[in-house]
UniProtKB/TrEMBL annotation:
GO terms for cellular component: cytosol. It comes from the Eukaryota. Belongs to the URM1 family. C-terminal thiocarboxylation occurs in 2 steps, it is first acyl-adenylated (-COAMP) via the hesA/moeB/thiF part of UBA4, then thiocarboxylated (-COSH) via the rhodanese domain of UBA4. One of its GO terms (biological process) is protein urmylation. Pfam families: Urm1. The lineage of its organism: Eukaryota, Fungi, Dikarya, Ascomycota, Saccharomycotina. This is Ubiquitin-related modifier 1. The modification 1-thioglycine is found at G101.
Length: 101
C-alpha cells in the first residue's frame, strides 16, 4: 500500500529539490501507520537532490529551526509535529523563513 502526498518547498527552500516547488508523491507506507517523522526521512532519501543539502533541511533529527512546517495548512506544532499520523492526500509544506541580506 502507499500514501499519496503533496510535498511543497517554499521560500527559496526549493533549491534543495532541484528547484521543484511541488512534488506529488506516493510513499510506501500504510495509511494511518506512518508518521511525519517517517515522511521526513523518506523526503531526505527521495526528494532532496544532494546529500549535502540534507543539513539545510534537518538538524538534530528534525526539521531545522527557521523552516515553517505546515500539515494541510496547519502549523505542525498543533498537529503533534513528528508524531502526526499521515493520511492519504495530506499536503506537507516546508517554508524557509530565513533570508540572506
Amino acid at each position: 500500500m502507499t500514501i499519496s502526498l503533496k510535498v511543497e518547498f517554499l521560500g527559496g527552500l526549493d533549491v534543495i529539490s532541484k528547484k521543484v516547488r511541488e512534488h506529488k508523491v506516493k510513499i510506501p507506507f500504510e495509511e494511518g501507520e506512518a508518521t511525519m517523522k517517517e515522511a521526513i526521512e523518506w523526503i531526505c532519501q527521495n526528494i532532496i537532490a544532494e546529500e549535502k543539502d540534507i543539513e539545510v533541511f534537518i538538524e538534530d533529527e528534525t526539521v531545522r529551526p527557521g523552516i515553517l512546517v505546515l500539515i494541510n495548512d496547519t502549523d505542525w506544532e498543533l498537529e503533534d509535529k513528528e508524531d502526526y499520523v499521515l493520511q492519504n492526500g495530506d499536503v506537507l509544506t516546508f517554508t524557509s523563513t530565513l533570508h540572506g541580506g
